[in-house]
Known about the structure:
Distance between the termini: 52 Å
Number of helices: 6
Shape: globular
Number of strands: 11
Amino acid sequence: MNPWKLLDKTEIPNDGGQLELLQRGDEFSIRLSGNRGELMNSRLHNSEEALAELGCAHLKSTVGAQVLVGGLGMGFTLAAALKVVPQSAKITVAELIPAVVEWNRGALGEGAGRPLLDGRVRIHTGDVIDLFSKNKSIFDAVLLDVDNGPEGLTHSANHHLYSLNGLKTIYNSLRTEGMLAIWSAAPDDTFLRSLKKVGFKVTTQTVRARVGKGSRHTIFLAKKT
């Protein structure tokens, strides 16, 4: 078997450690340095695509839909969202780590079909929290895959994002009937109750990492009614 080749590494803000990009043949991996493990793999992206398909399903005919994607990753969520929303839609992608954006503009972007080249896409290099409005409903869908789920793993500020105050800010930023979709590595009943407490109508879906096999991931679907 071909060994992994380290292509690049970068610092995660706020002392989150180092992020590494590795390649083996046509397979890519993004990992936390040391023994902290793999965050994503270019062969395992079914649940990332499901996040967009489920979160944007109500927007197929919505003219001028506004979508926010929190976390670029390997681009699979963005690519899936672009397939669902109409040509008049606008998608803003917030990515905290500048190197991840550059990786997607390079060889890594080929796997997802280079969605950053789509004219409907705008990149915000910074924290997704900065894009939410406390006083104005601006988004029809918000898709969050910024960490391992509601429990922050790589970036401590994600704890605030998934707190009651953070969820209230997201709720206020959504238009009526807007959808908040969140990727999680596992179910979380406490977080489910938090979403309901804020006012969301919530369901969950269990999705495999690969079609029909692989790890089971959870998609929280929280609708503003």
